[in-house]
Amino acid sequence: MSEARAQSFRFNTGAATTHAILIVGALIVLLPFYTMISLSLKAPHEIMQQTGGFIGAQEAFRDDYCVKLGNAAENCMVNPIIYNYSTAFEKAPLVRYLLNGLIVTVSIFVIQVLVALPCAYALAKLRFWGREAVFALVLFCLLIPVHAIALPLYIMLAKAGLTNTYAALIIPWTISVFGIFLMRQFFMTVPDDLIDAARMDGMTEFAIIWRVMLPTAIPALMAFGIFSVVAHWNDYFWPRIVITGNRDLFTPPLGLREFKGDADGDNFGPMMATACIIVTPLIVCFLLAQRRFIEGITLSGMK
Amino acid sequence: MARIQLDQIEKRFGDTPVLKGVSLDIQDGEFVTLVGPSGCGKSTLLRILSGLEAADSGRVVIDDRDVTGVRPADRNLAMVFQSYALYPHLTVAENMMTPLRMRDLTPVQRMPVVGPLIARGPHRDMRKQASDVAETLKITALMDRKPGQLSGGQRQRVALGRAMVRKPLAFLMDEPLSNLDAALRVHMRAELSELHRRLKATFVYVTHDQAEALTMSDRMAVMMHGDILQVGAPDEIYLDPNTLEVARFIGSPAINTLPAEAQGDGLLHVLGVSKPAPMTTTRQPVTVGVRPEHLVLKEAGRFSGTVRHRENLGADVFLHLEMAGLQQPLVLRATPQDAARIALGDNAAFDFDPADMLVFDAQGGRLRATTPAREVA
């Protein structure tokens, strides 16, 4: 018994090295995260002087802004955590930003699916002249970086009078070649018999897409959904370009700017608190869908 | 139910001809099997009949209605696939109701939640029909399961059920038993025949397994190289094949073939033995086919071979005999009693009745006698 246990705990240099490297890698990835959480918990002077460890001393400090508004100094003593997080919500309409983020990412994902599924179905299962050429174009489009076409896109939206609207945030992303490619690869694995059976049962091609292909493609759609939602929830570049004046349309990452570069200097505590709030929905989603997510990644062959 | 006519069907995939002008007439209520080796075009023919594939030329006529350009759903045929092709996300009951939903309900009535509320009558009818069929197939207990939770045999039944609910003009089956294990396959053969008798519907059944074709069909069509070589009742095909290819394909173990020389005088020489063969009138090389069950062990037999292998099937023993002048061993069916007297390596004498002999010319065409052959002992 004890011998067996000794066997199973035998030191393995190879595995140990692997884990050591992985741990170092994980630390590098987690370090900015650690800083973000830590700064969102600390008082401004602790942040500036880099003292206080992870959570700081949590002593009440004087809120200068509150004093400036003419309140008595003793009424303006605040706890760092409460100050950071409440300022995040007060100074910027963070709930509005989160809602914008939700509207934009969900709209993008829904329209992407509406476009990608029929395209992928046609590319995977229908025989038509030029199919291979179209698919080659899809692959080619995968290679084009967003930033390369940002300017023409912006000009088109501006000419159409769409800047500073939800449409500007959504329209450029509605056709996802990555989505088409991913779903096409998945549909290739669906047996032709299933589609023939659906045709025999009287379904039209569109009925086949929504009634047969969509339900069987849920795992692949989950994977694609995660890629899509994460990319557009976190996107700073595009909203920064097309949303210029109207703060009501800011997405969560744009909300971070509210705390940057004021005359009285950067306010890191509330800024990091905002960052924490922005990433929380994604982390919660990931934890809830972790198993599906890993299935999806393995399925799509993306790593 | 339905009479189906296939008229001069041609189909090419690229430069490869798959079907070369195939015609077949299927009577109402008949169980017709298309049998042939893989790649002979039988599945393509079935798909053209179903409408899933379009023929390059030729017509498909069902009950005197030309359906060549009609889409699959409007031909009112049901198909059972080799992989069953059940919808993995739907329960057995929903799978079986799908053809009814698509045919009988309007798009509004098909909507989830709302549909069943606004169209209670049609939904109740559908459930009734599905449960009736489930009862016939004894799958009532499985109605709430998903296909992933079913065994192969159960999935097979559900696929049949999905085909049966809408009472189609004909059932098309594409190797439906191929994915089942051997014992279940034999059992399902009997069950399919029983189902055919009960439904009195037209069945068109595609298989590469000649045993399935022989056991189930009213008539079978043997297909090779994109053509139907012979159509007829199983007995007719087995006992009276038109060509050497058909004779070789039907029957297990396969028919024995012996090179022979026709003398032109109504006799032929097989391995040095003379046999009366009134079907031959000219001198020519021929091939003689004799089924394993027609070779008889006989002390006074004029042929003899060395036993190289014994295949014991319990009721029968197949002896593989090696003979000088033959590359392939001959297979002889013996009773266990007779076979017990012969050991591996022994010489066995045997003979056959010339009436059981099938004679083919050099091109593989059958030479038929006008009068039955009799051995002048």
Automatic annotation (TrEMBL), chain A:
| Start and end residues of each ABC transmembrane type-1 domain | 98-289
Q: Which residues cross the membrane?
A: 20-41, 97-121, 133-155, 167-187, 208-230, 268-289
Question: Membrane topology per the record?
Answer: Multi-pass membrane protein
Query: Could you tell me where this protein is found in the cell?
Result: Cell membrane
A single GO cellular-component term from the record reads: plasma membrane
Q: Which InterPro entries match?
A: MetI-like, MetI-like_sf
**Which keywords does this chain's UniProt record carry?**
Cell membrane, Membrane, Transmembrane, Transmembrane helix, Transport
A biological process (GO) annotation for this entry? Answer: transmembrane transport
Q: Which domain of life is it from?
A: Bacteria
Recorded coiled-coil stretches: none
Matches recorded under Gene3D superfamilies: MetI-like
Q: Give the family per the record.
A: Belongs to the binding-protein-dependent transport system permease family.
Give the protein name, as stated in the record.
Sugar ABC transporter permease
The species this protein was found in: Actibacterium mucosum KCTC 23349
TrEMBL record, chain B:
InterPro entries from the xrefs? AAA+_ATPase (IPR003593), ABC_transporter-like_ATP-bd (IPR003439), ABC_transporter-like_CS (IPR017871), ABC_transpr_MalK-like (IPR015855), ABC_transpr_MalK/UgpC-like (IPR047641), Mo/tungstate-bd_C_term_dom (IPR008995), NA-bd_OB-fold (IPR012340), P-loop_NTPase (IPR027417)
Question: Coiled-coil annotation: which residues?
Answer: none
One Gene Ontology cellular component annotation?
A: ATP-binding cassette (ABC) transporter complex, substrate-binding subunit-containing
> Which Gene Ontology terms describe the biological processes this protein takes part in?
carbohydrate transport
Query: What keyword terms does UniProt attach to this protein?
Result: ATP-binding, Nucleotide-binding, Transport
Q: Which residues form the ABC transporter domain?
A: 4-250
Q: Which GO terms describe its molecular function?
A: ABC-type transporter activity; ATP binding; ATP hydrolysis activity
**Which family does the entry's similarity section mention?**
Belongs to the ABC transporter superfamily.
Name recorded for this polypeptide? Glycerol-3-phosphate ABC transporter ATP-binding protein
| Annotated source species | Actibacterium mucosum KCTC 23349
